Amino acid sequence: MESSYCFIIMENLMIKRIQTLLKQKETNIKVTIRGWIRTRRDTGSFSFLEVNDGSCLVNLQVIADKTLVNYEDEISKLGAGCSVVVTGILRESPAKGQDVELHAELVEVVGWADPESYPLQKKRHSLEFLRSICHLRPRTNALGAVTRVRSRLSFAVHNFFQERDFAQIHTPIITTSDCEGAGEMFQVRASDEKKRNKEPFFGLQAGLTVSGQLQAEVYALALGQVYTFGPTFRAENSNTSRHLAEFWMIEPEMAFCDLDCNMELATDLLKFVLQDILDNCVDDLALFDKFIEKGLVKKLQDVVNKDFVHITYGEAVEKLSGLKEKFEYPVEWGIDLQSEHERYLSEELYKCPVIVSDYPASLKPFYMRLSDDEKTVAAMDILVPGIGEIVGGSQREERLDILTRRMNEAGIDLEEYDWYLDLRRYGTVPHAGFGLGFERLVQFATGMKNIREVIPFPRTPGFAPC
Question: Is the pTM of this model over 0.85?
Answer without folding.
Answer: yes
